[in-house]
Write a structure and sequence with these properties.
This protein is mainly α and about 400 residues long. It has two domains: about 270 residues, no CATH class; about 30 residues, no CATH class. Helices cover about 65% and strands about 5% of the residues. The strands form three sheets. It has a two-stranded antiparallel sheet with strand order 1-2. The chain has a two-stranded antiparallel ribbon with strand order 3-6. A two-stranded antiparallel sheet has the order 4-5. Strand 1 and strand 2 form a beta hairpin.
Length: about 400
C-alpha cells in the first residue's frame, strides 16, 4: 500500500505538468488512447502487411509534423500567422546538406544536425527581432514572412550553375541538392546511422517527446502569456508584459521546430530542392496544422470576428428592431437577415394570430392605399405647378 502511494504521486505530478487549460485531452481516457496510438505506430513497421514504401511515407509525415507543430505554437498559441516556417525549414535543410556533404564523417553529420537547427532558429530570431521590435503586427507579419519565403524560393531556383557550390556541395538550382547524408549521431564506428526503419523510430520518439514537451510549455506561465497575447495584445501590454519579447520567444521556438523538421526531411530523402520554400509547400503545412496539430495540442481559435453580428438570426418573435425596419439595407447592416415579403394570405393569418400586438405584416385596406396614393400624386402635381 505504501509502495503504491509514491507511484500515484509521481503520476499525478507528471499529469499536472502535461495537463492544463490550454490543452485538450486532460483525462485518463485520452492518455489511454494516446498510449494505444503510440504503441500502434511502434508496431506498424513490424506488421507483415506493411511495406518499405509505407514505412518511408510515414517517416516523411513524421518529419512534416514538426513543421506543423511549429506553426501551432506560433499561430495557434501566439496568434502570429507566419508563412516563414517553410523558410526556416528550407534554410535548415540546405545547411544540413552543405555541412553534411563537406564533412561526411559521423561527427561531421552530427555537427551538421545541431548546426542546421541553430541556423534555422537563429534566422527566425533575427527576422522576428526586426519585425516585433519594429512594431510590425497582424497581417503585415504574414506578408513579410511570405515575401521572405518567396525570395528564398526564387534565389535558390537560380543556383543551378557550377559556380553555385559551397565546397563539395552544389546547390543545384531547381534540380535540388543531392547526396545529402543519412542522419547520424555519434563519433567514429560507434555512431548510430538512422536509415529507413531506424529513422522511423527515431522520429517517432522525437515527435512524441516534442509533443509532450510542448504540452508542458503551453501550460506553463510562458504559455499562459502567449495565449494572452493571442487573445488581446494591447491588454496584455497594459499588464506590464513585454509583448515583443513573448512573440520573439514563440517565433524562435517555432523556427527551431521547423528547422528540425527540415533536417529530418532532407535526411529522409537525401535530397532537397527550392520547392520547400514555395507557397504550396507552406499551405500543406498549414493544412496539416489545422487538421492535426491544433486538434491534438489545442484547437486553434481564431480571433473574434467583428463582422460576426451579420450572421445573427431573426429574433424569435419575428420582428426586426426599430432601426432595422427602416429599410432592408439598414437591416443588413444591423446584422439581421432580411426575408422576402410575405404573401397577403400569410399576412392575414399572422395578423389574426397576433392581433393586438401589431402583427408581423403591415396590411392595409386597399381603399386606404388608393387614397394615400392619390393624395401623394396631388401633392406632387401641386408642387410642379407652383414651381412653374
Amino acid at each position: 500500500m505504501s509502495g503504491a502511494a509514491p507511484a500515484d504521486g509521481i503520476v499525478d505530478r507528471i499529469r499536472n505538468r502535461l495537463e492544463g487549460p490550454n490543452t485538450y485531452g486532460n483525462s485518463g481516457l485520452f492518455w489511454a488512447v494516446f498510449g494505444i496510438m503510440v504503441l500502434g505506430l511502434a508496431l506498424y513497421p513490424l506488421s507483415p502487411t506493411t511495406s518499405a514504401f509505407d514505412v518511408l511515407t510515414t517517416t516523411q509525415y513524421f518529419a512534416l509534423a514538426f513543421l506543423a507543430l511549429s506553426l501551432s505554437i506560433v499561430w495557434g498559441y501566439t496568434g502570429v500567422l507566419s508563412f516563414g516556417q517553410v523558410a526556416f525549414f528550407g534554410v535548415a535543410a540546405y545547411t544540413f546538406g552543405v555541412i553534411g556533404i563537406n564533412f561526411s564523417s559521423a561527427a561531421g553529420v552530427t555537427a551538421a544536425f545541431f548546426g542546421a537547427v541553430i541556423v534555422g532558429a537563429g534566422f527566425a530570431a533575427l527576422l522576428g527581432y526586426f519585425m516585433f521590435y519594429g512594431g510590425v503586427r497582424d497581417v503585415y507579419v504574414t506578408i513579410i514572412t511570405l515575401v521572405v519565403a518567396m525570395v528564398l524560393n526564387t534565389f535558390m531556383a537560380q543556383t543551378a550553375g557550377s559556380e553555385w557550390a559551397i565546397g563539395e556541395a552544389a546547390l543545384g538550382g531547381f534540380n535540388g541538392m543531392t547526396n545529402i547524408p543519412d542522419l547520424t549521431f555519434g563519433v567514429g564506428e560507434t555512431a548510430l546511422v538512422l536509415d529507413m526503419v531506424g529513422l522511423y523510430y527515431a522520429l517517432l520518439v522525437l515527435l512524441v517527446g516534442t509533443y509532450l514537451g510542448l504540452r508542458v510549455l503551453v501550460n506553463s506561465q510562458l504559455g499562459m502569456t502567449m495565449v494572452a497575447v493571442r487573445e488581446d495584445e494591447d491588454r496584455t501590454a497594459t499588464f506590464g508584459y513585454n509583448v515583443p519579447f513573448i512573440k520573439l520567444v514563440s517565433f524562435t521556438i517555432g523556427g527551431g521546430l521547423a528547422a528540425a523538421g527540415g533536417v529530418f526531411y532532407a535526411s529522409w530523402g537525401n535530397f532537397i530542392d527550392p520547392s520547400v520554400f514555395g507557397i504550396l509547400f507552406g499551405d500543406r503545412s498549414n493544412d496539416r496544422d489545422r487538421t492535426n496539430a491544433h486538434g491534438t495540442i489545442r484547437r486553434f481559435r481564431p480571433a473574434r470576428s467583428r463582422v460576426g453580428v451579420r450572421h445573427r438570426r431573426r429574433p424569435a418573435h419575428g420582428r426586426y428592431p426599430r432601426d432595422a425596419r427602416r429599410s432592408r439595407t439598414v437591416a443588413r447592416q444591423s446584422g439581421y437577415r432580411t426575408a422576402r415579403r410575405p404573401s397577403p394570405r400569410t399576412c392575414r393569418r399572422r395578423n389574426a394570430r397576433v392581433s393586438g400586438h401589431g402583427g408581423h405584416c403591415t396590411m392595409r385596406d386597399p381603399s386606404v392605399n388608393a387614397n394615400r396614393t392619390a393624395s401623394h400624386n396631388n401633392r406632387r402635381s401641386t408642387a410642379v405647378i407652383s414651381s412653374e
